[in-house]
């Protein structure tokens, strides 16, 4: 689980900012570099074991807390993508579909997605037989096929249904 926090130093960026899933990988990469040039960026990660131990929502909130804690400066107000906000010292405003409604949340969505995809590329270098570079950890047919062929690794969430079913 990867989360990002962004404090923009520039009001308008010369790239398309949107929900990261609505951008191509090329658009995300370009936006990622522009965001890093014009923002203070924090990144937080919750590992597979933390997701299994806490649940996906609590691990997401933990990653958000870590991302905000990774910022160089404190935020006055934190806009959160989704209906639930983490417990932080600054006030939080949760916004459903915030990555489509707020430029700063869109930026954080892009940063988190690019970092997550790069993490999947790194995992691929460690265990290429799982093809993390292709499915990026999503529950695709290829991912399920590789899980069935090789079994789960330490990188896999035990709470992910295809992994859970293999471990029965």
Number of strands: 4
DSSP strand content: 5-15%
Radius of gyration: 17 Å
Termini separation (Å)?
Answer: 24 Å
- Which overall shape is indicated by the principal axes computed on the Cα atoms? globular
Per CATH, the architecture of the largest domain is 2-Layer Sandwich
Average pLDDT, rounded to a whole number, is 95
Largest sheet: 2 strands, antiparallel
CATH superfamily of the largest domain: Ribonuclease H-like superfamily/Ribonuclease H
Q: Briefly note the structural class of the backbone.
A: alpha+beta
Unreliable spans: none
Order of neighbouring strands in the sheet with most strands: 1-2
Q: What is the helical fraction, as a range of percent?
A: 40-55%
Count of individual domains:
2
Helix count equals: 8
Name the helix and strand elements from N-terminus to C-terminus, one letter apiece.
EHEHHEEHHHHH
CATH topology of the largest domain: Nucleotidyltransferase, domain 5
CATH hierarchy, class of the largest domain: Alpha Beta
């Amino acid at each position: 689980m990867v989360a990002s926090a962004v404090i923009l130093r520039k009001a308008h960026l010369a790239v398309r900012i949107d929900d990261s899933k609505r951008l191509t990988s090329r658009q995300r990469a370009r936006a990622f570099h522009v965001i890093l040039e014009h923002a203070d960026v924090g990144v937080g990660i919750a590992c597979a074991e933390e997701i299994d131990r806490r649940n996906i929502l609590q691990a997401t909130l933990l990653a958000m807390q870590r991302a905000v804690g990774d910022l160089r400066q404190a935020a006055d107000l934190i806009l959160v993508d989704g209906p639930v906000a983490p417990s932080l010292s600054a006030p939080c405003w949760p916004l459903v579909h915030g990555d489509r409604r707020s430029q700063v949340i869109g930026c954080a969505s892009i940063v988190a997605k690019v970092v997550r995809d790069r993490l999947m590329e790194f995992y691929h270098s460690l265990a290429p037989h799982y093809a993390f570079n292709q499915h990026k950890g999503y529950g695709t047919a290829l991912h399920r096929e590789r899980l069935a062929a090789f079994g789960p690794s330490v990188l896999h969430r035990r709470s992910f249904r295809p992994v859970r079913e293999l471990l029965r």
